[in-house]
Specification:
27 strands, nine-stranded mixed sheet, mainly beta
Length: 362
């Protein structure tokens, strides 16, 4: 309906919100979400925020949850009649969520997330609950869809995150989990450095942060690798660069300048690679020399002197240089479009979840 805001629903977890959240939700609007878990499991719903204008019996705005299998209902809820606990444990694999509003003056609306009973570490399933202080070590299950929920990330993936992080968004930013699926992470508190520079990664921008000397480290589960990323991954050597075309420029002095494929290395000084102007379907190819496990990519524009950069791209890979597969990410339904750079000098990271095993990457 016209009251639906940010919504991402998967069989194992998801996030949903009213329209305009966390701004005021519209008048005379409605939304219905149907949540379905795999057979044999039950749904657990975390109330991240229920800020609907108060009224008698929640008549102006309300949240109602119906469990058709058990024939029970929860609510209606609004600001003066909220849920008794932040986590609702159902005995059903299907729940219908109903949101309605009439004329009202205030209220942020609602934010809910859910997971299934097969996932441990549910105590902080809601993205908005993640700003609380954390114990020295905790297991957190992050629902799918938290990337686009309002909130700031402090720190960057190469140096860790503070305990004021929105933890699930930080995990997406760091490449521990994919936003379209969610997943479990382990959080441990360890001594670290005090200054974190901002960074753009996996569609999220962190903020510069300086305070104290203790902060959390994020661990994917399962797996031996931990973040910061520098602790578990190395830059791969590129044996050769190739491209669909490249630009031969004649500068103001009449000199030729070749924006050739070999200039695409991240640390190359001066101008970079650029496709021939007007070319369609341009690609850059990296030959890694042998099959490697590729966990992510970092892109950068040409330089401040040459204000050129790529704003979005797809990735394809091959083990033999003949048969190519376009990367589709953890969802596997559509070719993934990666968000690239917004300027010519900043670096942008994108993680491959799951990783790519290939010799050639385009």
């Amino acid at each position: 309906g016209d009251g639906c805001g940010h919504t991402l629903l998967t069989p194992h977890s998801g996030t949903l919100s009213s329209k305009n959240y966390p701004g005021t939700y519209p008048n005379h609007t409605a939304c219905r979400w149907r949540l379905r878990a795999p057979p044999g499991t039950s749904l657990l719903l975390a109330f991240g925020d229920v800020d609907l204008e108060p009224s008698e019996r929640c008549a102006r705005s309300s949240l109602l949850l119906a469990d058709p299998q058990a024939g029970t209902a929860y609510g209606p809820y609004c600001r003066n009649a909220g849920p008794a606990a932040p986590l609702l444990v159902t005995n059903s694999s299907a729940v219908t969520v109903l949101f309605n509003s009439t004329s009202h003056r205030s209220g942020r609306g609602l934010l809910l997330s859910y997971a299934t009973s097969q996932h441990p570490g549910r105590g902080e399933a809601s993205p908005r609950d993640a700003e609380t202080h954390t114990p020295p070590r905790a297991v957190v299950y992050c629902p799918a869809g938290c990337k686009d929920i309002d909130g700031d990330i402090w720190g960057n993936p190469s140096q860790g995150y503070r305990d004021t992080s929105v933890l699930c968004k930080a995990a997406v930013h760091a490449g521990v989990i994919a936003d379209e699926l969610g997943g479990q992470v382990t959080l441990s508190r360890e001594k670290g450095i005090t200054l974190y520079e901002s960074a753009f990664a996996n569609g999220l921008h962190s903020k510069r942060w300086a305070r104290g000397s203790w902060g959390p480290w994020l661990h994917p589960a399962p797996g031996p690798c931990r973040l910061p990323l520098s602790a578990c991954s190395d830059a791969l050597e590129v044996a050769a660069f190739n491209a669909s075309s490249w630009w031969y420029e004649v500068d103001a002095l009449g000199q030729d300048r070749a924006w050739a494929a070999k200039r695409a290395a991240l640390g190359a000084a001066g101008h970079s690679w650029a496709a021939e102007p007007g070319s369609e379907g341009a690609w850059l190819e990296l030959d890694l020399g042998t099959r490697r496990n590729v966990t992510g990519i970092i892109t950068k524009g040409s330089s401040e002197r040459y204000d050129y950069y790529v704003t979005s791209y797809r990735v394809s890979s091959s083990r033999d240089g003949k048969n190519w597969r376009t990367y589709r990410g953890s969802g596997g339904q559509e070719d993934k479009v990666f968000e690239g750079n917004a300027d010519s000098h900043g670096e942008v990271s994108n993680a491959f979840i799951p990783p790519i095993v290939a010799r050639y990457v385009r």
